[in-house]
Design brief:
It is a single chain. The protein has 456 residues and is mainly α. Helices cover 71% and strands 4% of the residues. It has one domain. The strands form 2 sheets. A 3-stranded parallel β-sheet has the order 5-1-6. The chain has a 3-stranded parallel β-sheet with strand order 2-4-3. Helix 3 packs antiparallel against helix 12, helix 6 packs antiparallel against helix 7 and helix 13 packs across helix 15. The longest helix has 43 residues. The radius of gyration is 21 Å and the shape is globular. The termini are far apart. The relative contact order is 0.16.
Length: 456
Protein backbone atom coordinates (compact mmCIF):
# COMPACT_ATOMS: atom_id res chain seq x y z
CA UNK A 1 0.00 0.00 0.00
CA UNK A 2 2.81 2.39 0.92
CA UNK A 3 4.50 1.66 -2.42
CA UNK A 4 1.31 2.52 -4.31
CA UNK A 5 0.87 5.79 -2.39
CA UNK A 6 4.52 6.63 -2.94
CA UNK A 7 4.16 6.10 -6.69
CA UNK A 8 1.05 8.28 -6.79
CA UNK A 9 2.84 10.96 -4.79
CA UNK A 10 5.92 10.89 -7.03
CA UNK A 11 3.70 11.15 -10.12
CA UNK A 12 1.76 14.14 -8.76
CA UNK A 13 4.96 15.80 -7.55
CA UNK A 14 6.41 15.45 -11.03
CA UNK A 15 3.46 17.13 -12.74
CA UNK A 16 4.16 20.49 -11.15
CA UNK A 17 1.58 23.17 -10.31
CA UNK A 18 0.81 24.27 -13.88
CA UNK A 19 -0.40 20.78 -14.79
CA UNK A 20 -1.65 19.35 -11.50
CA UNK A 21 -3.74 22.35 -10.41
CA UNK A 22 -5.79 22.81 -13.63
CA UNK A 23 -6.46 19.06 -13.81
CA UNK A 24 -7.61 19.07 -10.19
CA UNK A 25 -9.84 22.12 -10.84
CA UNK A 26 -11.45 20.51 -13.91
CA UNK A 27 -12.03 17.16 -12.16
CA UNK A 28 -13.36 18.93 -9.07
CA UNK A 29 -15.82 20.92 -11.19
CA UNK A 30 -17.13 17.75 -12.86
CA UNK A 31 -17.45 15.95 -9.50
CA UNK A 32 -19.36 18.92 -8.08
CA UNK A 33 -21.86 18.89 -10.94
CA UNK A 34 -20.36 21.50 -13.25
CA UNK A 35 -20.94 20.78 -16.94
CA UNK A 36 -17.90 19.10 -18.47
CA UNK A 37 -17.20 21.85 -20.98
CA UNK A 38 -17.48 24.53 -18.30
CA UNK A 39 -15.22 22.49 -15.99
CA UNK A 40 -12.56 22.07 -18.68
CA UNK A 41 -12.77 25.80 -19.43
CA UNK A 42 -12.29 26.57 -15.72
CA UNK A 43 -9.26 24.29 -15.55
CA UNK A 44 -7.67 25.74 -18.67
CA UNK A 45 -8.34 29.34 -17.62
CA UNK A 46 -6.80 28.54 -14.23
CA UNK A 47 -3.67 27.34 -16.01
CA UNK A 48 -3.58 30.48 -18.17
CA UNK A 49 -4.03 32.74 -15.15
CA UNK A 50 -1.28 31.04 -13.20
CA UNK A 51 1.07 31.16 -16.20
CA UNK A 52 0.50 34.91 -16.24
CA UNK A 53 0.91 35.23 -12.47
CA UNK A 54 4.06 33.09 -12.38
CA UNK A 55 5.58 34.96 -15.33
CA UNK A 56 4.96 38.39 -13.82
CA UNK A 57 5.78 37.47 -10.22
CA UNK A 58 8.69 35.32 -11.38
CA UNK A 59 10.10 38.11 -13.52
CA UNK A 60 9.80 40.55 -10.65
CA UNK A 61 11.22 37.97 -8.26
CA UNK A 62 14.26 37.44 -10.43
CA UNK A 63 14.93 41.17 -10.62
CA UNK A 64 14.28 41.81 -6.93
CA UNK A 65 16.27 38.78 -5.88
CA UNK A 66 19.29 39.94 -7.87
CA UNK A 67 19.06 43.42 -6.33
CA UNK A 68 18.56 42.01 -2.85
CA UNK A 69 21.43 39.56 -3.21
CA UNK A 70 23.77 42.33 -4.33
CA UNK A 71 22.68 44.46 -1.39
CA UNK A 72 23.02 41.48 0.98
CA UNK A 73 26.48 40.61 -0.28
CA UNK A 74 27.62 44.19 0.16
CA UNK A 75 26.24 44.58 3.68
CA UNK A 76 25.96 41.14 5.28
CA UNK A 77 29.47 39.70 5.40
CA UNK A 78 29.19 38.87 9.12
CA UNK A 79 26.19 36.60 8.56
CA UNK A 80 27.41 33.04 7.98
CA UNK A 81 24.13 31.13 7.33
CA UNK A 82 22.76 31.50 3.80
CA UNK A 83 19.11 31.39 2.76
CA UNK A 84 18.84 28.81 -0.05
CA UNK A 85 15.25 29.72 -0.94
CA UNK A 86 11.99 27.90 -1.54
CA UNK A 87 12.96 26.32 -4.91
CA UNK A 88 15.69 24.27 -3.23
CA UNK A 89 13.54 23.67 -0.14
CA UNK A 90 10.59 22.35 -2.13
CA UNK A 91 12.83 19.99 -4.08
CA UNK A 92 14.37 18.74 -0.82
CA UNK A 93 10.96 18.30 0.79
CA UNK A 94 9.40 16.34 -2.07
CA UNK A 95 12.51 14.13 -2.33
CA UNK A 96 12.07 12.80 1.20
CA UNK A 97 9.95 9.73 2.13
CA UNK A 98 7.45 12.09 3.77
CA UNK A 99 7.34 14.19 0.60
CA UNK A 100 6.52 11.15 -1.52
CA UNK A 101 3.41 10.43 0.55
CA UNK A 102 2.16 13.86 1.54
CA UNK A 103 -0.01 14.56 -1.54
CA UNK A 104 -2.11 11.35 -1.66
CA UNK A 105 -2.42 11.15 2.13
CA UNK A 106 -3.01 14.90 2.37
CA UNK A 107 -5.88 14.76 -0.13
CA UNK A 108 -7.43 11.82 1.75
CA UNK A 109 -7.12 13.65 5.09
CA UNK A 110 -8.62 16.84 3.64
CA UNK A 111 -11.65 14.92 2.30
CA UNK A 112 -12.18 13.19 5.65
CA UNK A 113 -12.05 16.52 7.49
CA UNK A 114 -14.62 17.92 5.06
CA UNK A 115 -16.93 14.93 5.51
CA UNK A 116 -16.81 15.23 9.29
CA UNK A 117 -17.34 19.00 9.17
CA UNK A 118 -14.00 19.89 10.75
CA UNK A 119 -12.91 22.13 7.87
CA UNK A 120 -14.65 24.17 5.20
CA UNK A 121 -11.65 24.26 2.86
CA UNK A 122 -10.93 21.90 -0.02
CA UNK A 123 -7.27 22.55 -0.71
CA UNK A 124 -6.72 22.19 -4.46
CA UNK A 125 -3.27 23.79 -4.23
CA UNK A 126 -1.69 20.36 -3.84
CA UNK A 127 1.73 21.34 -5.14
CA UNK A 128 2.20 23.56 -2.08
CA UNK A 129 1.87 20.49 0.13
CA UNK A 130 5.67 20.69 -0.04
CA UNK A 131 5.47 23.12 2.90
CA UNK A 132 3.98 20.33 5.01
CA UNK A 133 6.58 17.86 3.72
CA UNK A 134 9.32 20.32 4.70
CA UNK A 135 8.07 20.40 8.30
CA UNK A 136 7.79 16.61 8.28
CA UNK A 137 11.36 16.29 7.00
CA UNK A 138 12.63 18.54 9.82
CA UNK A 139 10.78 16.47 12.42
CA UNK A 140 12.13 13.26 10.93
CA UNK A 141 15.62 14.76 11.18
CA UNK A 142 15.08 15.63 14.85
CA UNK A 143 13.45 12.32 15.87
CA UNK A 144 14.91 9.84 13.40
CA UNK A 145 11.35 8.55 12.93
CA UNK A 146 9.61 8.48 9.56
CA UNK A 147 6.20 7.98 11.20
CA UNK A 148 6.62 11.02 13.46
CA UNK A 149 7.75 13.04 10.44
CA UNK A 150 4.65 11.96 8.50
CA UNK A 151 2.46 12.71 11.52
CA UNK A 152 3.95 16.23 11.77
CA UNK A 153 3.43 16.85 8.04
CA UNK A 154 -0.23 15.80 8.15
CA UNK A 155 -0.77 17.75 11.37
CA UNK A 156 0.66 20.81 9.61
CA UNK A 157 -1.85 20.33 6.80
CA UNK A 158 -4.66 20.39 9.37
CA UNK A 159 -3.22 23.62 10.80
CA UNK A 160 -3.11 25.16 7.30
CA UNK A 161 -6.75 24.18 6.66
CA UNK A 162 -7.89 25.61 10.00
CA UNK A 163 -6.01 28.87 9.34
CA UNK A 164 -7.62 29.02 5.89
CA UNK A 165 -11.09 28.57 7.41
CA UNK A 166 -10.39 31.18 10.07
CA UNK A 167 -9.14 33.85 7.67
CA UNK A 168 -11.49 33.13 4.74
CA UNK A 169 -14.27 35.66 5.53
CA UNK A 170 -11.73 38.46 6.04
CA UNK A 171 -9.73 37.46 2.95
CA UNK A 172 -12.85 37.24 0.79
CA UNK A 173 -14.12 40.62 1.93
CA UNK A 174 -10.83 42.47 1.65
CA UNK A 175 -9.74 41.06 -1.71
CA UNK A 176 -13.31 40.71 -3.11
CA UNK A 177 -12.78 37.02 -3.92
CA UNK A 178 -15.85 35.09 -2.73
CA UNK A 179 -15.69 31.36 -2.12
CA UNK A 180 -11.92 31.05 -1.71
CA UNK A 181 -9.57 30.52 1.21
CA UNK A 182 -5.77 30.48 1.52
CA UNK A 183 -4.26 27.32 3.08
CA UNK A 184 -0.81 28.33 1.79
CA UNK A 185 1.19 27.52 4.92
CA UNK A 186 3.84 30.21 4.44
CA UNK A 187 1.45 33.16 4.20
CA UNK A 188 -1.05 31.70 6.68
CA UNK A 189 1.75 31.09 9.18
CA UNK A 190 2.86 34.72 9.00
CA UNK A 191 -0.76 35.81 9.47
CA UNK A 192 -1.13 33.67 12.60
CA UNK A 193 1.97 35.27 14.09
CA UNK A 194 0.84 38.78 13.06
CA UNK A 195 -2.71 38.68 14.47
CA UNK A 196 -1.84 39.93 18.00
CA UNK A 197 0.43 42.64 16.59
CA UNK A 198 -2.28 43.67 14.13
CA UNK A 199 -4.74 43.90 17.01
CA UNK A 200 -2.34 46.20 18.90
CA UNK A 201 -1.61 48.38 15.85
CA UNK A 202 -5.32 48.91 15.27
CA UNK A 203 -5.64 50.31 18.78
CA UNK A 204 -2.99 53.02 18.32
CA UNK A 205 -5.00 56.01 17.13
CA UNK A 206 -2.46 57.76 14.89
CA UNK A 207 -1.52 54.46 13.20
CA UNK A 208 -5.12 53.38 12.76
CA UNK A 209 -6.07 56.71 11.21
CA UNK A 210 -3.22 56.93 8.66
CA UNK A 211 -5.27 55.04 6.05
CA UNK A 212 -2.38 54.79 3.61
CA UNK A 213 -4.10 52.24 1.41
CA UNK A 214 -3.92 52.40 -2.41
CA UNK A 215 -7.33 54.13 -2.72
CA UNK A 216 -6.53 56.98 -0.33
CA UNK A 217 -2.99 57.34 -1.70
CA UNK A 218 -4.43 57.60 -5.20
CA UNK A 219 -6.93 60.25 -4.09
CA UNK A 220 -4.30 62.31 -2.25
CA UNK A 221 -1.45 62.03 -4.76
CA UNK A 222 -3.29 61.75 -8.07
CA UNK A 223 -0.99 60.31 -10.74
CA UNK A 224 1.77 59.62 -8.18
CA UNK A 225 -0.67 57.46 -6.26
CA UNK A 226 -1.47 55.17 -9.19
CA UNK A 227 -0.26 51.60 -8.49
CA UNK A 228 1.71 51.56 -11.75
CA UNK A 229 3.48 54.83 -10.90
CA UNK A 230 4.10 53.73 -7.30
CA UNK A 231 5.61 50.54 -8.68
CA UNK A 232 7.90 52.57 -10.92
CA UNK A 233 9.06 54.73 -8.00
CA UNK A 234 9.63 51.79 -5.64
CA UNK A 235 11.37 49.77 -8.36
CA UNK A 236 13.69 52.67 -9.17
CA UNK A 237 14.62 53.15 -5.51
CA UNK A 238 15.28 49.42 -5.12
CA UNK A 239 17.53 49.50 -8.16
CA UNK A 240 19.55 52.40 -6.77
CA UNK A 241 19.80 50.71 -3.35
CA UNK A 242 20.97 47.55 -5.08
CA UNK A 243 23.83 49.38 -6.74
CA UNK A 244 22.38 49.46 -10.24
CA UNK A 245 23.31 52.12 -12.73
CA UNK A 246 20.73 54.60 -13.99
CA UNK A 247 19.77 52.54 -17.05
CA UNK A 248 19.30 49.28 -15.10
CA UNK A 249 17.45 51.07 -12.30
CA UNK A 250 14.98 52.50 -14.84
CA UNK A 251 14.51 49.02 -16.36
CA UNK A 252 13.82 47.65 -12.89
CA UNK A 253 11.33 50.48 -12.34
CA UNK A 254 9.53 49.72 -15.62
CA UNK A 255 9.38 45.99 -14.79
CA UNK A 256 7.95 46.76 -11.37
CA UNK A 257 5.37 49.11 -12.85
CA UNK A 258 4.38 46.39 -15.33
CA UNK A 259 3.88 43.90 -12.50
CA UNK A 260 1.67 46.37 -10.59
CA UNK A 261 -0.53 46.66 -13.67
CA UNK A 262 -0.47 43.09 -15.02
CA UNK A 263 -0.89 40.91 -11.92
CA UNK A 264 -4.37 42.28 -11.09
CA UNK A 265 -5.43 41.45 -14.67
CA UNK A 266 -4.16 37.88 -14.26
CA UNK A 267 -5.95 37.53 -10.93
CA UNK A 268 -9.21 38.71 -12.54
CA UNK A 269 -8.84 35.88 -15.09
CA UNK A 270 -8.31 33.45 -12.23
CA UNK A 271 -11.43 34.69 -10.44
CA UNK A 272 -13.40 34.29 -13.67
CA UNK A 273 -12.11 30.72 -13.99
CA UNK A 274 -12.93 29.75 -10.42
CA UNK A 275 -16.32 31.42 -10.06
CA UNK A 276 -18.26 28.59 -11.82
CA UNK A 277 -16.41 26.00 -9.70
CA UNK A 278 -17.18 27.90 -6.50
CA UNK A 279 -20.84 28.18 -7.47
CA UNK A 280 -21.01 24.44 -8.25
CA UNK A 281 -19.31 23.70 -4.93
CA UNK A 282 -21.80 25.87 -3.07
CA UNK A 283 -24.76 24.07 -4.67
CA UNK A 284 -23.20 20.66 -4.03
CA UNK A 285 -22.54 21.37 -0.36
CA UNK A 286 -25.92 23.02 0.19
CA UNK A 287 -27.66 19.96 -1.21
CA UNK A 288 -25.67 17.40 0.80
CA UNK A 289 -24.58 19.36 3.86
CA UNK A 290 -27.27 21.91 4.62
CA UNK A 291 -26.14 25.02 6.41
CA UNK A 292 -22.44 24.55 5.65
CA UNK A 293 -20.13 26.87 3.71
CA UNK A 294 -17.45 25.48 1.45
CA UNK A 295 -14.21 27.16 0.32
CA UNK A 296 -11.74 26.38 -2.44
CA UNK A 297 -8.22 26.60 -1.04
CA UNK A 298 -5.69 28.37 -3.28
CA UNK A 299 -2.08 29.56 -3.34
CA UNK A 300 -1.60 33.01 -1.80
CA UNK A 301 -0.21 34.05 -5.21
CA UNK A 302 -3.83 34.90 -6.09
CA UNK A 303 -3.57 37.79 -3.61
CA UNK A 304 -0.41 39.17 -5.23
CA UNK A 305 -2.44 41.37 -7.56
CA UNK A 306 -3.33 43.67 -4.69
CA UNK A 307 -1.41 46.96 -4.79
CA UNK A 308 -0.72 46.97 -1.06
CA UNK A 309 0.65 43.44 -1.17
CA UNK A 310 3.01 44.26 -4.04
CA UNK A 311 4.17 47.57 -2.56
CA UNK A 312 4.75 46.13 0.94
CA UNK A 313 6.47 43.10 -0.56
CA UNK A 314 8.90 45.33 -2.43
CA UNK A 315 9.58 47.53 0.60
CA UNK A 316 10.41 44.42 2.65
CA UNK A 317 13.39 43.56 0.42
CA UNK A 318 15.91 46.10 1.82
CA UNK A 319 14.21 46.08 5.23
CA UNK A 320 14.74 42.34 5.69
CA UNK A 321 18.47 42.73 5.03
CA UNK A 322 18.77 45.69 7.41
CA UNK A 323 16.74 43.72 9.95
CA UNK A 324 19.10 40.75 9.65
CA UNK A 325 22.06 43.03 10.37
CA UNK A 326 20.29 44.76 13.27
CA UNK A 327 19.41 41.42 14.88
CA UNK A 328 22.93 40.04 14.54
CA UNK A 329 23.87 41.03 18.14
CA UNK A 330 20.76 39.14 19.34
CA UNK A 331 21.77 35.90 17.67
CA UNK A 332 20.71 36.16 14.04
CA UNK A 333 23.23 34.62 11.65
CA UNK A 334 20.95 34.32 8.61
CA UNK A 335 21.77 36.26 5.47
CA UNK A 336 18.49 36.79 3.54
CA UNK A 337 19.19 35.82 -0.05
CA UNK A 338 17.09 33.73 -2.45
CA UNK A 339 13.77 34.25 -0.64
CA UNK A 340 14.14 38.03 -0.67
CA UNK A 341 11.78 37.87 -3.65
CA UNK A 342 9.09 36.37 -1.39
CA UNK A 343 8.00 39.66 0.16
CA UNK A 344 4.57 39.46 -1.50
CA UNK A 345 3.95 36.09 0.20
CA UNK A 346 4.90 37.61 3.55
CA UNK A 347 2.55 40.56 3.00
CA UNK A 348 -0.33 38.71 1.31
CA UNK A 349 -2.36 37.80 4.40
CA UNK A 350 -1.10 40.65 6.58
CA UNK A 351 -2.70 43.41 4.51
CA UNK A 352 -6.32 42.61 5.57
CA UNK A 353 -5.30 42.89 9.24
CA UNK A 354 -4.64 46.62 8.73
CA UNK A 355 -7.25 47.39 6.05
CA UNK A 356 -4.66 47.42 3.29
CA UNK A 357 -2.50 50.18 4.79
CA UNK A 358 0.85 49.94 2.97
CA UNK A 359 3.00 51.21 5.85
CA UNK A 360 1.27 49.09 8.50
CA UNK A 361 1.40 45.99 6.30
CA UNK A 362 5.13 46.59 5.91
CA UNK A 363 5.44 47.13 9.67
CA UNK A 364 3.73 43.80 10.38
CA UNK A 365 6.03 42.19 7.82
CA UNK A 366 9.08 43.57 9.62
CA UNK A 367 7.79 42.25 12.96
CA UNK A 368 7.06 38.70 11.79
CA UNK A 369 10.28 38.49 9.79
CA UNK A 370 12.25 39.85 12.73
CA UNK A 371 10.96 36.99 14.86
CA UNK A 372 11.35 34.57 11.98
CA UNK A 373 15.00 35.42 11.28
CA UNK A 374 16.03 34.27 14.75
CA UNK A 375 14.39 30.93 14.10
CA UNK A 376 15.84 30.56 10.60
CA UNK A 377 19.20 30.60 12.38
CA UNK A 378 18.09 28.05 14.99
CA UNK A 379 16.66 25.69 12.35
CA UNK A 380 19.78 25.87 10.19
CA UNK A 381 21.27 22.56 11.48
CA UNK A 382 18.18 20.65 10.30
CA UNK A 383 18.11 22.36 6.90
CA UNK A 384 21.86 21.85 6.48
CA UNK A 385 21.46 18.15 7.23
CA UNK A 386 18.74 17.89 4.54
CA UNK A 387 21.03 19.61 2.03
CA UNK A 388 24.11 17.54 2.88
CA UNK A 389 22.28 14.20 2.67
CA UNK A 390 20.48 15.03 -0.56
CA UNK A 391 21.62 13.69 -3.92
CA UNK A 392 19.56 16.19 -5.94
CA UNK A 393 22.44 18.42 -7.06
CA UNK A 394 20.71 21.58 -5.84
CA UNK A 395 21.48 25.01 -7.23
CA UNK A 396 22.38 26.80 -4.00
CA UNK A 397 24.74 29.69 -3.15
CA UNK A 398 28.37 28.67 -2.79
CA UNK A 399 30.85 29.70 -0.13
CA UNK A 400 28.68 28.75 2.85
CA UNK A 401 28.68 25.62 5.02
CA UNK A 402 25.37 26.21 6.81
CA UNK A 403 21.97 26.70 5.17
CA UNK A 404 18.46 27.78 6.05
CA UNK A 405 15.19 28.65 4.30
CA UNK A 406 13.57 32.00 5.04
CA UNK A 407 10.23 31.15 3.45
CA UNK A 408 9.51 28.24 5.81
CA UNK A 409 11.98 28.18 8.69
CA UNK A 410 10.62 31.61 9.70
CA UNK A 411 6.99 30.53 10.27
CA UNK A 412 5.62 29.29 13.62
CA UNK A 413 4.58 25.83 12.42
CA UNK A 414 8.13 24.99 11.34
CA UNK A 415 10.06 26.09 14.38
CA UNK A 416 7.22 25.20 16.78
CA UNK A 417 7.09 21.55 15.74
CA UNK A 418 10.87 21.37 15.28
CA UNK A 419 11.40 22.19 18.94
CA UNK A 420 8.33 20.39 20.25
CA UNK A 421 9.52 17.09 18.77
CA UNK A 422 12.83 17.40 20.56
CA UNK A 423 10.87 16.40 23.67
CA UNK A 424 9.83 12.74 24.24
CA UNK A 425 7.64 11.55 21.37
CA UNK A 426 4.53 10.90 23.47
CA UNK A 427 4.66 14.42 24.93
CA UNK A 428 5.23 15.96 21.50
CA UNK A 429 2.28 14.11 19.95
CA UNK A 430 -0.11 14.93 22.80
CA UNK A 431 0.89 18.61 23.02
CA UNK A 432 0.74 19.10 19.23
CA UNK A 433 -2.73 17.54 19.08
CA UNK A 434 -3.89 19.79 21.93
CA UNK A 435 -2.55 22.83 20.08
CA UNK A 436 -4.47 21.86 16.94
CA UNK A 437 -7.65 21.37 18.98
CA UNK A 438 -7.04 24.81 20.47
CA UNK A 439 -6.67 26.28 16.98
CA UNK A 440 -9.93 24.63 15.95
CA UNK A 441 -11.79 26.33 18.80
CA UNK A 442 -9.97 29.59 18.12
CA UNK A 443 -11.25 29.66 14.55
CA UNK A 444 -14.76 28.98 15.79
CA UNK A 445 -14.75 31.54 18.60
CA UNK A 446 -12.72 34.50 17.26
CA UNK A 447 -14.16 36.18 14.17
CA UNK A 448 -11.29 37.78 12.25
CA UNK A 449 -13.67 39.63 9.95
CA UNK A 450 -15.29 41.39 12.92
CA UNK A 451 -11.95 41.92 14.63
CA UNK A 452 -10.17 43.46 11.63
CA UNK A 453 -12.78 44.13 8.97
CA UNK A 454 -14.38 47.26 10.43
CA UNK A 455 -11.54 49.72 9.76
CA UNK A 456 -11.87 51.60 6.47
Amino acid sequence: MEGILTSIGEFLNGLGPLIALPVVIALLGIILGQKWDSAIRSGLMTAVAFVGIFLTVGGLGSTVSTIGQTFATNTGTNLDIIDIGWPAASALAFATPVGNLIIPLGILLNVLLLIFGLTQTLDVDIWNFWHMAFVGALVQFVTGSFMLGLFAALLTLVIALFLADWSAPLIQKHFKMPGISIPHLQSAGYMLLAVPFGWLVNRVAFLKNMKLNPDTIRKKLGLLGEPMVLGFIIGFLLGILGGQGLKDAILTAVNTAAVMLLIPRMVSILVEALTPVAEAASKYMTKRFKGREFYIGLDSAVLAGNSTVIAAGLLLVPLEILLALALSPLGNRTLPFIDLADGVFVAAMLAPLVAGDVILTTLLGVIVMGIGLIFTTLLAPGVTQLVNTSSLGLDIPTGYATYTVMSDAAIPTSYGLYYLFQTPAAIAVIVSLLLVVGLYYLKRSVNLEKLFGAKK
